[in-house]
């Protein structure tokens, strides 16, 4: 409870509920209440009156700022908030598919740790999207859901990469309600047709329907969910030389929105597993890029930024959707750099310890000589 001095000249003002009554004096508390100006002022209290406001007074009068800026702890907290990423109450951006159609170029990250905390950090960092990787990450749809909820709190859309081109895996992923899905290892047009069919309801596809009880429809609360089926961004991955040979036919499959090139798998498919930046790999990449961009149907070009192929170079070549950072790589690089910069090596510890022991030995020897001379 707030303590209010009873000095005749002290004055404390608080915010109160709006009333139009005139100024009155409380018979119980000895305070002057100006309901029109929303103030309560301390005046000399009458004899035998309480020294603090009653519960009824608090029901009507609330403190405008019980923690003034003068409080060091509050001032520090406000300073830290001011240093943080600024929060805006603006409406979240539109669906990824609509943003690409409007000409926007998107930059996102991959989440492989399945950590909701790291997902939330990536979301608040400002990425356009985050891909939750169920192909190479350890998690499944059960682990992906909390990560999607964390991203939703930051207003950032989630894309799910399923482990394989499998209708069951696709059904479970789509039931979570991502804004996009990524299907790996598409080699032929028939692979593409299988992937597209598994993420669409009949008659256009063969996706199983349980929309009244899945997260994608807010468990049946969102009755417009079935009309939003076409907003999902369908991304197929081109990851082998064979796939590049069929890339125009794959792009022509109805329902394909984006083809994403996988540089590491492309490099391994032609014998350069440890050298994705090799000249022959880049030639294959450029051939695939030109094919997608020149396709008769509109197909977006997606890819992964690499040390030898940064995002700015990819944008120059026409990429619409670029995935850059990976959460585990970001954490690994930061941890390794921190240890390298700040940890004292074993050899250095030995040198320091040896120096201390040498100095201690010298002191003992000097003490021995002094004792002997005396």
UniProtKB/TrEMBL annotation:
It comes from the Eukaryota. It holds the Pfam family HpcH_HpaI. InterPro entries: Aldolase/citrate-lyase_domain, HpcH-HpaI_aldolase, Pyrv/PenolPyrv_kinase-like_dom, Pyrv_kinase-like_dom_sf. Residues 107-334 form the HpcH/HpaI aldolase/citrate lyase domain. This is HpcH/HpaI aldolase/citrate lyase domain-containing protein. Belongs to the HpcH/HpaI aldolase family. It comes from Adiantum capillus-veneris (Maidenhair fern). One of its GO terms (cellular component) is cytoplasm. One of its GO terms (molecular function) is aldehyde-lyase activity. Keywords: Lyase, Metal-binding.
């Amino acid at each position: 409870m707030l303590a209010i001095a009873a000095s005749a000249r002290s004055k404390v003002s608080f915010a109160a509920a709006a009333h139009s009554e005139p100024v009155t004096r409380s018979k119980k508390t000895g305070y002057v209440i100006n309901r029109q100006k929303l103030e309560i002022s301390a005046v000399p209290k009458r004899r035998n009156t309480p020294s603090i406001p009653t519960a009824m007074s608090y029901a009507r009068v609330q403190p405008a700022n019980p923690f003034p800026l003068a409080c060091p702890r509050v001032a520090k907290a406000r300073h830290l908030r001011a240093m943080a990423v600024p929060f805006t109450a603006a409406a979240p951006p539109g669906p990824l598919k609509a943003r690409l159609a409007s000409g926007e170029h998107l930059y996102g990250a991959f989440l492989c740790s399945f950590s909701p905390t790291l997902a939330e950090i990536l979301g608040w960092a400002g990425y356009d999207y985050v891909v939750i990787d169920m192909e190479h990450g350890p998690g499944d749809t059960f682990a992906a859901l909390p990560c999607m909820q964390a991203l939703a709190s930051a207003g950032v859309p989630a894309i799910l990469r399923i482990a394989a081109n499998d209708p069951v895996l696709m059904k479970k992923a789509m039931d979570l309600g991502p804004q996009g899905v990524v299907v790996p290892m598409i080699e032929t047009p028939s692979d593409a047709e299988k992937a597209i069919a598994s993420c669409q309801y009949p008659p256009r596809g063969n996706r199983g329907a349980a929309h009244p009880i899945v997260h994608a429809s807010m468990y049946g609360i969102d009755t417009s969910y079935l009309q939003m089926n076409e907003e999902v961004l369908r991304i197929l991955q081109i990851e082998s030389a064979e796939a590049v040979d069929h890339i125009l036919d794959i792009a022509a499959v109805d329902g394909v929105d984006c083809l994403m090139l996988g540089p590491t798998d492309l490099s391994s498919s032609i014998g350069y597993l440890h050298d994705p930046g090799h000249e022959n790999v880049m030639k294959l990449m450029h051939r695939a890029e030109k094919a997608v961009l020149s396709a008769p149907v509109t197909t977006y070009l997606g890819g992964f930024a690499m040390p030898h192929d940064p995002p700015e170079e990819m944008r120059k070549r026409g990429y619409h959707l670029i995935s850059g950072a990976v959460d585990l790589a970001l954490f690994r690089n930061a941890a390794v750099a921190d240890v390298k910069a700040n940890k004292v090596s074993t050899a250095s510890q030995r040198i320091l310890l040896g120096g201390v022991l040498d100095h201690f030995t010298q002191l003992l020897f000097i003490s021995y000589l002094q004792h002997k001379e005396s």
